[in-house]
Amino acid sequence: MAELIAVAGSAPGVGKSTTCGQLAEWLSGLGLAVEHFQEEDILSRSEFADVAAEFTTTGVVGLRTLLQATSSYVDHLQASGVDVAVADSLVPFVPSLVAWGHDDHAISKFLDELAELLLPVRPVIVYLDGDPRVALPRAAQREGDGWLDRYVGKLADYGVQPAVRDLDTACAYLERERETTLRLIRSKPWQVVVIQRAHQLSPADVASEAQHSLRSRFG
Q1: Does the structure show a pLDDT above 80 at 133?
Q2: What pLDDT shows up at residue 203?
Q3: How many helices (H) and strands (E) does the chain have?
Q4: Closest CA to 93 of 206, 5, 181
Q5: Are 121 and 72 in contact (CB under 8 A)?
Q6: Rounded distance between C-alpha atoms, residue 19 and residue 31, angstroms
Q7: Contact at 8 Å (CB) between 6 and 91?
Q8: Which of 14, 39, 153, 214 matches a 20 to 30 Å C-alpha distance to 88?
Q9: What b-and-e string marks burial along 30-61, b requiring 16 or more CB atoms within 10 Å of the CB?
Q10: What is the pLDDT of residue 117?
Q11: pTM of the model
Q12: Element holding 132 (H helix, E strand)
């Protein structure tokens, strides 16, 4: 029976993708069949075709579309022979829902439905909790010139509150997003592993903490 490890984080650059890769490698080393779902896969996977189409057309995705795509992905995992999937920035979708203007009540109701769909894969959410004032410049260095301006502009275009105009206001927004995400996912029937001070840890140390928290479940 397939299981799901969903890696999320407080900001781009906090180490989600690196942690996913290291968790996938660790689990494979335990003899498990692992599917590594990378962040960009959502635009190309058949299970998420409607998600990609809506986002490309309108910049947002409907809640029902997200739920239907998640159901298709769970069906895929159950039929694939995979033991565990490690997903980068996939479920529980809270940062996207906040950016698209959904309030806490709507997000919580959505998460209740999502939790029902994910029951067969017993999800565990690994949340990398780090300072966006460190993480965003790190992401900008990785992504190259212009990335930070584009990221700030994307948040500004969403019309998020507090309004985003520059790095400082982007960080303030991400701190609100972080608080909302952690509060709501902790209220659902999921195992949630929070890696504190992820921005201060090396990638190896982040992965080590995550593995320690998951060892009793995956070996």
Answers
A1: yes
A2: 87
A3: 9, 5
A4: 181
A5: no
A6: 19
A7: yes
A8: 153
A9: eeeebbbbbeeebeebebbebbbebbeeeeeb
A10: 98
A11: 0.95
A12: helix 132-143
